[in-house]
Amino acid sequence: MPEMPEVQALAMFLATRLRGVSITRVDLAAISALKTFDPPLEAIRGSVVRDVTRHGKFVDISLFSPDEDLHVVFHLAKAGWLRFAEQISPTIIKPGKTPIALRVVFSDDSGFDLTEAGTKKSLAVYVVRDAQVVPGISTLGPDPLADDFTRESFADILRGRRTQIKGVLRDQSLIGGIGNAYSDEILHAARLSPYASAAALSDDDITTLYTAMKDTLRHAIEHASGKPPAELKDAKRAGFAVHARTGHPCPVCGVTVRSVYFADRSLEYCPTCQTGGKILADRRRSRLLK
């Protein structure tokens, strides 16, 4: 799943490339992907791209038109992605015959496709007058890289919360933008077990975790910035220390990275760096990652 660093890089790329161009065509191939009906999708034709920004894991394309300003907001979910082309194909996409869910074409003949692999379809597209009405944005927690998200702000979120810290980092209503992959990386950098209780963290642990969160996300954004969408997935994987590296040596201590598997995903950690050598139980029925 694309997380904050990739979504930020994607928004920056689209903003640089699309500001000032207008939408000439929009083709919806997966009706289930469109979550709104008023304004209709057709209303964005002729609109000019004002800016592209990010809210958590959501991309927000802000549009200007003489009639009314609109926003196209999308969330790529677990298996979605954006494919950008300097010259988009003129072929009309056929519903159900392609992984493409939505195609948007611009006045300079460029465009992008929103695609989704697999059978579980979760990609979501919204056409709204105000991005804050999108359910996932209206309930979004603070951005962890915002200037006003201080160490004390973070401590307030953790205080008295008996949830495992892995789940806290991934909870979008508490902190916006961090997912499964970067929560693994942050906890490894902080040398904390993913099963540690948020409420049990010491003041030093909180400071260490806060710093690791900021540093990990900033480094990932710097690494992703300037890359076109086609390169972002590989760039993300190349930067991992533990996530998706089960069986490989930890880059810090050399011990083999371990996994805990769940129904549809896993977490990765280093036993030496994070759990004092303890191998975590494979809690396949845990609700941690749901």
Architecture overview:
The chain has about 290 residues and is an alpha+beta fold. It is about 30% helix and about 20% strand. It is built from 8 helices and 10 strands. A 4-stranded antiparallel beta sheet has the order 1-6-7-5, with no helix packed on it. It has a 4-stranded antiparallel beta sheet with strand order 2-3-4-8, with helices on one face. Helix 3 packs across helix 6 and helix 5 (about 180-190) crosses helix 6. The longest helix is centred in the last third of the chain and has 22 residues, at about 205-225. The two termini are about 15 Å apart. It comes from Microbacterium mitrae. Belongs to the FPG family.
In short:
By secondary structure, the chain is α+β, with helices and mostly antiparallel strands. The chain contains eight helices and ten strands.
Q: How helical, in percent, are the residues?
A: 25-40%
The coarse overall form would be elongated
Give the ordered list of helices and strands. Answer: HEEEEEEEEHHHHHHEEH
The CATH homology group name of the largest domain: MutM-like, N-terminal
Cofactor: Zn(2+)
GO molecular function, one term: damaged DNA binding
InterPro entries: DNA_glyclase_Znf_dom_DNA_BS (IPR015887), FPG_cat (IPR012319), FPG_N (IPR035937), H2TH_FPG (IPR015886), Ribosomal_uS13-like_H2TH (IPR010979), Znf_DNA_glyclase/AP_lyase (IPR000214), Znf_FPG/IleRS (IPR010663)
Protein name: Fpg/Nei family DNA glycosylase
